[in-house]
Amino acid sequence: MKALITGGTGFIGSHLTKALIRKGVQVRCLLRKTSDLTWLKDLPIEFIPGDCNDKTSLEEAVRGVDWVFHLAGVTKAIKEGTYFEVNGLGTENLIHACLENNPRLQKFIYISSQAAAGPSRSGSNKKESDPCEPVSFYGRSKRMGEESVLAHAHELPAVILRPSAVYGPRDKDVFALFKCLSRRIKPCLTGRRRRLSLCYVGDIVEGILLAVETQTKSGEIVFLSDGNDYRIEEIGDIVAHVMGITALRIRVPARMVVGIACFSDVLSQLLGRPFLLNKDKAKEIVQQEWVCDITKAKTLLGFEPRVPLLEGAGLTFEWYKKEKWL
Whole-prediction pTM value? Predict the structure, then answer.
């Protein structure tokens, strides 16, 4: 088997690349010339220079592969339009490249996000059949990518996966929590209790592999998480426990988060680079319920997450220490 991965140098993509190689799959990666190859060094990979808005590079990238895993995208940007140009239009370009240059493609796996569905409004866990109500530009752009996949599901064998918040070795987003806790600070939003679904990166990769190997109807949408819901305070407590520290809990009003995010956006414009916290991310952070139901993943794909948060946080912490991130 031969697979194309977009976003192969990223957090989830680099783990998926290694997993496919271990399975004996020939891997081809579509990469920008400026991509950081740290996590792909010395691996038997065919590199194609380009990106999802370079149609010529896409033609070469998709030819002759059996599977396409589309993970490339932006999670933070300075301009609103960047989200839609990369996550939306880039997905549409890749789909058309597959249809025009690889009519025998066996599976197209689109890695979307829980953000595309939006938070739960009913107090129950979000299901794939629930209406999509994204609250951020990022979420709307990922939903735009989903809609492109669904529009071509009759001619492209596709599955859409919606991971919850993902953590693990190499992750730079959840790392911010570890870094705060290393300074013995445990930030928590004030107001009602907030719940979140999480998943360790190894389990996400296993879910992706199940999706490509399982015979499914084209256009299926599937949530992925570890099957548990966590209170934000609980997540901080578990991470602090594996780090072996006691941290001071600091209550942060939602309005302060928005204010800091606005200041970050001004800095982003001045410095020409996006920050982890911006107004778009703040719209997601202040929501009450980011929880999803993985019943469909279990029944359709046979997905059984193996790594609970306590174990996954420990593995992640040890990796951060080993790599001297902490």
Answer: 0.95
